[in-house]
């Protein structure tokens, strides 16, 4: 049994004394302890060495004390396992030197044996679960097939992902073949993560908002929903789709346990679009953590008042930024613990 089960109760629509809180990208560059490890090992070494991934996962648990841990890893370990070479360059983000641009390229990718290619992630989960000692639940995650496609086709990060979109619209057969292969790999991967001990799964669709509502259904939601259907009987699934308020009604009718909300959608709108029942997670603007601490605390309390204490998980509307002072990150978490309706 998990000692602090606020997060699990919020995901099961059970009453809570206060809402649970964690932060997307809570293991990251705003922590000096993370930067120390980063100085010694390159990015994928950190992901692929189970002891390092577990240690990095534990850092925010000790320092800012959220109500859930999220395994340190990256969504791009999945395309790497499929045979697509991905590098991570400082200040440039992910680079794919040979991006996918044709059906021929898609056919060269593989649906891997996940125990062989991603076994290091499962090992990291087992070590992390031991280190956590049942204090808080552990979240495992994957990128949505669409968001993975964005990187492997574009070849790098982008503000618009025009090349990735152009590939889908000019070569839909290749695009759907690729999306299905990523989906099949992701399902095997997430089943492995659940088996290794993850208590909850979050799917990150960080670039879903690049698509129109109609294209979103065709190129993203359909595949996310396949993933939810495949694992929802085994675990609670959270879907975080940035910029996708238009898809909230469809998502709230799926087997997802909770939906992530970004800061461009108000609590009132999010509750309206999701029918008022499903658990929502979010949606503090990550840049707002640069406000003075009293202001952060006041805004967090306002946010809880707007979402309500039940069926709600406090989080940011996207990942924490590297330039946030640790004290401000801690103030965000503390504000939730101090909440008094
Ligand atoms: O939440 C957590 O603490 C777990 C760790 C986590 C990382 N990446 C570690 C990471 C998670 C959940 C991710 C997911 C991820 N990775 C997403 C989806 C979430 C989101 O923020 O939209 C995406 C789009 C990626 C791809 C990715 N990885 C990019 C674009 C970058 C470079 C840009 C950046 O933010 O630095 C990464 C690198 C990365 N992944 C870092 C971390 C801590 C920073 C680089 C480093 O540590 O050297």
UniProtKB/TrEMBL annotation:
Keywords: Cytoplasm, Decarboxylase, Lyase, Porphyrin biosynthesis. PROSITE patterns: UROD_1, UROD_2. One of its GO terms (biological process) is protoporphyrinogen IX biosynthetic process. InterPro entries: UROD/MetE-like_sf (IPR038071), Uroporphyrinogen_deCO2ase_HemE (IPR006361), Uroporphyrinogen_deCOase (IPR000257). GO terms for molecular function: uroporphyrinogen decarboxylase activity. Residues 20-29, 139-155 form the Uroporphyrinogen decarboxylase (URO-D) domain. Its EC number is 4.1.1.37. Transmembrane segments: none annotated. The record marks 74 as: Transition state stabilizer. SUPFAM superfamilies: UROD/MetE-like. It is found in: Cytoplasm, Cytosol. Substrate binds at residues 25-29, 44, 74, 151, 206, 318. Pathway: Porphyrin-containing compound metabolism; protoporphyrin-IX biosynthesis; coproporphyrinogen-III from 5-aminolevulinate: step 4/4. PANTHER family: METHYLTETRAHYDROFOLATE:HOMOCYSTEINE METHYLTRANSFERASE RELATED, UROPORPHYRINOGEN DECARBOXYLASE. Catalyzes the decarboxylation of four acetate groups of uroporphyrinogen-III to yield coproporphyrinogen-III. Homodimer. HAMAP family: URO_D (MF_00218). This is Uroporphyrinogen decarboxylase. It comes from Flavobacterium flavipigmentatum. The lineage of its organism: Bacteria, Pseudomonadati, Bacteroidota, Flavobacteriia, Flavobacteriales. The gene is hemE.
């Amino acid at each position: 049994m998990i000692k602090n089960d606020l997060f699990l109760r919020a995901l099961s629509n059970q009453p809570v004394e206060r809402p649970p809180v964690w932060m997307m990208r809570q293991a990251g560059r705003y922590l000096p302890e993370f930067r120390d490890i980063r100085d010694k090992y390159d990015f994928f070494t950190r992901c692929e060495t189970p002891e390092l991934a577990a240690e990095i996962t534990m850092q925010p648990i000790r320092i800012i004390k959220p109500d859930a841990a999220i395994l340190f890893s990256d969504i791009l370990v999945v395309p790497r396992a499929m045979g697509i070479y991905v590098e991570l360059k400082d200040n440039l983000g992910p680079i794919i030197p040979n991006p996918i641009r044709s059906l021929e390229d898609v056919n060269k990718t593989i649906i891997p044996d996940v125990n062989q290619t991603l076994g290091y992630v499962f090992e990291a989960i087992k070590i992390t679960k031991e280190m956590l000692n049942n204090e808080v639940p552990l979240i495992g995650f994957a990128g949505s097939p669409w968001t993975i496609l964005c990187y492997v086709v574009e070849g790098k990060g982008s503000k618009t992902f025009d090349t990735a979109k152009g590939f889908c619209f000019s070569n839909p057969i290749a695009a759907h073949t690729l999306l299905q292969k990523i989906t099949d790999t992701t399902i095997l991967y997430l089943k492995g993560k659940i088996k290794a001990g993850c208590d909850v799964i979050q799917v990150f669709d960080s670039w879903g908002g690049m698509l129109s509502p109609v294209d979103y259904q065709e190129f993203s939601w359909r595949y996310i929903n396949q993933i939810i259907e495949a694992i929802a009987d085994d675990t609670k699934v959270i879907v975080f789709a940035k910029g996708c308020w238009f898809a909230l009604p469809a998502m709230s009718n799926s087997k997802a346990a909770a939906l992530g909300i970004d800061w461009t959608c108000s609590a009132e709108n999010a509750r309206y679009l999701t029918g008022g029942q499903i658990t929502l997670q979010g949606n503090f603007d990550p840049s707002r953590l640069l406000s003075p601490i009293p202001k952060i605390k006041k805004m967090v309390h306002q946010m809880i008042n707007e979402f309500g204490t039940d069926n709600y998980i406090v989080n940011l509307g996207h990942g924490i930024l590297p330039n946030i002072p640790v004290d401000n990150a801690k103030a965000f978490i503390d504000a939730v613990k101090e909440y008094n309706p």
